[in-house]
Write a structure and sequence with these properties.
The protein has about 220 residues and is mainly α. The protein folds into two domains: about 140 residues, Four Helix Bundle (Hemerythrin (Met), subunit A); about 45 residues, no CATH class. The protein is built from nine helices and four strands. The strands form two sheets. It has a two-stranded antiparallel sheet. Strand 1 and strand 2 form a beta hairpin.
């Protein structure tokens, strides 16, 4: 994932930790969309949802194409705070402009998380594609539609899988599991103890597929 084109100025309008994180993540998604628009050769100032640019640096088409992928930023921010990759102590407040800003090390951890999520990819047209490749693909599809090479255009696909491995269903199943039932399922006592501890915690956790199958939980 390309991150070098992200400008720090995207943080300037946020006055709390969550929104500064969202703005930063959105700026990374925006940079990927801008790269796609420039690669395909579309005019970034001519949008459909956002007003046509009335000043030089406004890129209406980039903002349009960013919309279907903003959820990637939302999910990364949620995960970052749930997993304690980011915490309030990782931000500092500047009294000059009354804004929160990232410290450098937490920012790097956050960027690595976003890179990981982009690289996880999604199934699209029979292939497993990274999200930056999907963005480029959808931009190309828009160009083909605008030039009349295809008759239809849809941003409904690809559909990401948003299910969690630590759902309420899973937590309830683990907490209701008795020692006798765990023994029948070949789940060791220590594993059951660890699972119960994780299920009671507010922190997210992952479950091994083999254990999920024993519990008849679909990941």
């Amino acid at each position: 994932m390309c991150i070098s084109r992200c400008a720090h100025t995207h943080q300037n309008n946020a006055s709390d930790c969550v929104n500064v994180s969202l703005n930063y993540a959105y700026s990374l998604v925006e940079s990927e969309v801008r790269r796609g628009v420039n690669s395909i050769g579309l005019e970034p100032s001519l949008g459909f949802l956002h007003d046509v640019a009335d000043y030089q640096t406004k890129e209406s088409l980039v903002y349009d194409l960013q919309e279907p992928f903003r959820f990637l930023a939302d999910l990364c921010v949620i995960e970052a705070f749930e997993r304690r990759i980011l915490d309030k102590k990782d931000f500092y407040f500047t009294f000059a402009d009354l804004r929160y800003r990232f410290s450098e090390e937490p920012k790097l951890r956050f960027v690595n998380l976003i890179r990981e999520r982009f690289n996880s990819g999604v199934q699209y047209k029979g292939r497993r594609l990274r999200w930056d490749t999907v963005i480029l693909e959808k931009t190309n599809e828009l160009a083909r539609y605008l030039t009349g090479k295809v008759a239809t255009l849809s941003f409904a696909e690809p559909k990401p899988t948003l299910g969690r491995s630590d759902s309420r269903e899973l937590r309830s199943r683990i907490l209701a599991l008795t020692s006798a039932e765990a023994k029948q399922l070949a789940i060791p006592k220590q594993s059951l103890h660890d699972l119960r501890k994780k299920a009671r915690s507010e922190k997210p956790f992952k479950l091994y597929r083999e254990t999920a199958q024993k519990l008849e939980i679909r990941l």
